[in-house]
Every structure is written in C-alpha cells, then in structure tokens.
Specification:
Layout lengths: L8 E7 L2 E9 L5 E7 L2 E6 L11 E4 L7 E8 L3 E7 L2 E5 L1
Antiparallel strand pairs: 1-2, 2-3, 3-4, 5-6, 6-7, 7-8
Length: about 90
C-alpha cells in the first residue's frame, strides 16, 4: 500500500514544555518535503531536493517570549540527520 509520505522520518523534542517536531519525507520521483511544527502548529516547509546540512533548511523567528528562533539543519549522506537549534543552542542532533 502506498503512503502519501513515503520514507517519513520525524524527530520530536521538548523545549520548556513545548513540543518541537521536524519531519522529512521523500520518494524516488525526487518529491518530498521537510516540515517544522510547534505544539502541532505548522511553522515552515521546505521542498528543496538537496540537504547538505550547511544552511538552515527550516526556521521560524520571534515565536514567543522564550523562543526567539527555531532553526533546523538537515543533511543526508546514507542516513538522514537533523540538528535543531532554539535561540542558537543545539537541543537535538543526530
């Protein structure tokens, strides 16, 4: 059975009681997307075909009083890796 989001990978982290979720999916037709959520609210999406980990792939700024920035770096070289930063501090890294 085909799924609308094949090869889906997600990372969910807690930051001060808030749930930050990053998801990424792709297929062999070179379609896919990376998405950023905060407490279930969709904040950003990126459909770039290449992720090197050298530039911010997903981001949201001035989110709340305690969250000034969320930045997500994604890279793929045999394995998908995520790095999530809040206010410039790494809170998750594969």
């Amino acid at each position: 059975m085909k799924t609308p989001t094949p090869n889906l990978e997600e990372r969910t982290v807690d930051f001060n009681g808030r749930e930050i979720k990053v998801s990424n999916w792709w297929n062999w037709k070179l379609q896919g997307a990376a998405d950023l959520y905060l407490d279930g609210e969709h904040l950003d999406q990126n459909k770039d075909k290449i992720a090197t980990g050298k530039k911010v792939l997903l981001s949201k700024y001035d989110v709340s009083e305690d969250i000034k920035s969320i930045e997500v770096y994604v890279s793929f070289f045999f394995k998908l890796k995520f790095k999530i930063l809040v206010n410039g501090n790494i809170i998750h890294q594969d």
